[in-house]
């Protein structure tokens, strides 16, 4: 499948410099489409509308987004693909939809390096992703797979391109630090019904049985280890929490585009 760009529902073979400059200030959401359906599609719509109201002072109706998503699916004639929806403004509100081949979930269990960092306006999935790429590359150059962030006070928040949660027995715990509330994380929380959102301190890491990363690609990617200042906490496979998470997701079927 070749990548495709649609600007406000129409194919865009090239973007003029003014459009590219405008697109640098905005927000986006990314999703995986399988058989024409998306996990937590309603949450993607809600994120786009909420962020557009905050960033541009106007709503973004779900019907408009859905129309552009359906146009994207029609143009590539495939029900399995990756979609990123960017929202930016010139004189009007614009949707730039990037369509590409589907991305398979990760199979390698990541070894994470804990880094002190807090994203700017973390509740928004904004286009300022330099820091995420930078710290991820720094971790890889140090021999790890990616980075997980913590605050100055030592609370775990999120990873470079994932949310993170922890398991203690059958209880799933989400960090209370300020993060981007990922759509896949919200799907999991909706399926769980009962969960904890509490401070997860670096000193608490050895007390958890497992850690999982979640995003639009990886529903629950087990973390192999987290390292801080040369000290590493290893996590072994944990069947009890795997079963809890699988049952939670099973209650939340994908939604058709």
UniProtKB/TrEMBL annotation:
Keywords: Aminotransferase, Lyase, Transferase. InterPro entries: Aminotrans_IV (IPR001544), Aminotransferase-like (IPR036038), BCAT-like_C (IPR043132), BCAT-like_N (IPR043131). The keyword Cytoplasm does not apply. The keyword Lyase applies. GO terms for molecular function: lyase activity; transaminase activity. NCBIfam families: PRK09266.1. This is Branched-subunit amino acid aminotransferase/4-amino-4-deoxychorismate lyase. It comes from Kribbella shirazensis.
